């Protein structure tokens, strides 16, 4: 079992390092789309997860609800990774 | 001739018809023309000369379209600046294309407001640009290697010829509604200009997810989908059960369509995906509307007055694809090389390897160059390597496209570090500062040496097999 907190920490780290500008404060409650998360960010994030966990998260699972915040996205990823 | 005449003619004929739909905002042709006229008056107050080259740094939206036509009204040359460009890349582009200014949605250093969400930053190129007497409308900046030819210039007349020719393949009319999701900075002329010149309606869909795209298609009864394989793969995996009965044409563009995407999309919607051959130097050469099912991997037969020929074919009929026809680009910009010096006996050599079957259908097999295609965005390995090699701990590097089942390719890099156990993190950080996000390698491999060609000792360009 992978814990949601592990994924959340990983996502936060990745988003800070690779997606958002240095002056954007990223927290688990950050509204992703409002902060500038776009389709290329999603592509990079999915490749990052695939590289680390050997599993491609289907884009169809990434709904608007999942993409609200870092926390909701982490919850979706955790569910899918544990169900694979 | 000026391309705004195409839009004005459409607006005179169908003033109340929706031209663009963005979220809940519906902009009629009459309103769009009015907006371009009002913007043109504002642009006239700026230090923009006739034939001056202006960078356009705007995201997809009604404003992007209106500003492009407004710039044409004041006889400026539009140079799109993709939103993913870093400041370093914008500076390179501005210098190489000798921009007079940049119109941007966000204020930039020393820029002044044109409207509430449009700013003009004046630039002063050391030498004024020379358009060599051409009535230029558009320059597409292409990066690539330092020695590569940068910028493809197109005159108003050239684009008009392309528009007419492209629609012989697309056959789009005023009854069509096109669902749009591609970046306008990369796609505009033989797509949006075509749609707006025939009175079609263009719906601007947000493209992060499948759901908004489907919702927009259903809500506005889209008849034409124009997107990259990446988008069709997302749509194919949708499980909402929603059908798309209004769609009559779905064009897959920007990179080769993976067979499983074609199959899955057809299985999900019973709509065959149509591929075409679009090249910035040429326009839309072909579109496979004749036989998209049996020959799903063909880009079709040459459209309109285009002619296609395989040069020096091998025993299996494969060779470099050369094209002749209307609307071929006017010149490369930096250095300035007119079309006549590029064409060989009237033929443009595309760099694509292909073959033509007995019925005249063209199949593209590979590129002669090593360009990487990440979900439709082109990445030049030499450009990434040049950045990597500037980092003090990188002794040498090789960048290649690693095949990826969902994305086409991802950018991967092999590095030789000095010292060998140096940390990779500063290299990643440096890439972030220097490169647009999609160009940053997603996979790094540390190696002790790179393969070299036996005779010249150059780093071997062939991509390792994943």
Which helices and strands appear, and what pairs or packs with what?
The complex is a heterodimer of chains A (84) and B (466).
Chain A: H1 4-19, H2 39-53, H3 70-83
Chain B: H1 4-13, E1 18-22, E2 25-28, H2 29-44, E3 53-57, H3 62-73, E4 77-80, H4 87-96, E5 101-104, E6 111-115, E7 118-122, E8 136-140, E9 150-155, H5 156-170, E10 177-180, H6 189-197, E11 201-204, H7 210-219, E12 224-227, H8 229-236, E13 249-252, H9 259-269, E14 273-279, E15 283-287, E16 307-311, E17 319-324, E18 331-334, E19 337-338, H10 339-342, E20 348-356, E21 362-367, E22 372-374, E23 377-379, H11 381-390, E24 394-404, E25 408-417, H12 425-434, E26 443-446
Helix pairs in contact in B: 1-2, 2-3, 5-6, 8-9
If you had to describe this structure to a student in words, what would you say it looks like?
The complex is a heterodimer of chains A (84) and B (466). Chain A has 3 helices and no strands. Chain A has helices at 4-19, 39-53, 70-83. Chain A is globular, with a radius of gyration of 12 Å. Helix content of chain A is 54%, strand content 0%. Chain A is an all-alpha fold. Chain B folds into 3 domains: 4-129, Rossmann fold; 158-367, ANL, N-terminal domain (Rossmann fold, 3-Layer(aba) Sandwich); 372-446, ANL, C-terminal domain (GMP Synthetase, Chain A, domain 3). Chain B is built from 12 helices and 26 strands. In chain B, helix 8 (229-236) crosses helix 9 (259-269). The longest helix of chain B has 16 residues, at 29-44. The interface between A and B is medium-sized, with 24 and 28 residues.
What structural class do the secondary elements of chain B suggest? Answer: alpha/beta
The average pLDDT score of chain A comes to 86
Query: Between the first and last Cα atoms of chain B, what is the distance in angstroms?
Result: 51 Å
Q: Residue share in helices of chain B?
A: 25-40%
- Assign the structural class of chain A, choosing from mainly alpha, mainly beta, alpha/beta, alpha+beta, or little secondary structure: mainly alpha
Could you tell me how far the N terminus lies from the C terminus of chain A, measured between alpha carbons in angstroms? Answer: 11 Å
Oligomer category: heterodimer
Q: What general outline of chain A do the C-alpha atoms trace? A: globular
Name the shape of chain B in a single word.
Answer: globular
Radius of gyration of chain B: 22 Å
Rg of chain A computed from alpha carbons, rounded to a whole number of angstroms: 12 Å
Can you count the helices of chain B?
12
The tally of domains of chain A stands at 1
SS elements, strand count of chain B: 26
Strand order of the largest sheet of chain B: 2-1-11-10-12-13-14-15
Which regions of chain B contain 5 or more consecutive residues with pLDDT less than 50?
Answer: none
Largest sheet of chain B: 8 strands, mixed
Detail the poorly predicted runs of chain A.
none
User: Largest interface, per-chain counts?
Assistant: A-B, 24 and 28 residues
